[in-house]
Design goal:
alpha/beta, nine-stranded mixed sheet, 7 helices
Length: about 250
Amino acid sequence: MSRRPRIGITMRLELPTDRFYLGRDYAEAVEAAGGIPVHIALIPKAEYISAIMDDLDGILLPGSNTDVDPYYYGDEPHPKLGPVIPVKDQTDILVLDEVERRNLPLLAICFGMQVLNVHRGGTLVQDIESQIENPLKHEQGQPATRLSHGVTVADTGILAGLESVRNSQAPIRVNSSHHQAVGEVGRNLVATAWAKDGIIEAVEDSRNEHFAVGMQWHPELLVVHDEISREIFRLFVEKCGVRGASAVGSAV
């Protein structure tokens, strides 16, 4: 039996209880697609991050109910800025440093896409409702699995190449739970999906030799009934498997 790829997922911090946590859907979606989920504690020490990532074949950056500190993209806090957790920002940025150094496959979801963009030198819209003209409702509320708005996918790229996207007979719709968004797109990234109000819904690495895709919606919540979401996770885990097999081969 071939080795299943090990995929790191950074955890989140619950401030009232001071506990690390992570929604189960991320790990379950990775495992269902053939990967082994590995939780990464929010310990912003470069030596810890480097050591734990020695055994990983890819990284999933999950969503969060907090915001990236605007300090990281040269902005001051907007009145509608949500809570900021420094150890989370610092840990995710250290992980992204290692992703770039090691050229690991990356799947970045919601907050994960935002911190990826900031790490690449991009900016964020701090509050969609007050900063974007005629915005859609991007904080849909419950149920979180409802497909609440449509997206337009670019003609080329990772998402465009998904069989389920190419063969879709209906407009592609996604769930939505965010009040911030990508502003100026960071280096070596390209926008590949948009909402009707112009909000960027997906970004991808523009370099052919790097697999990185970020999406503003939450495919981990949709894998049970949505083929596009299942295919996203299958492709990501497949890329991690190729990376893992290559690393094992080079070590022999």
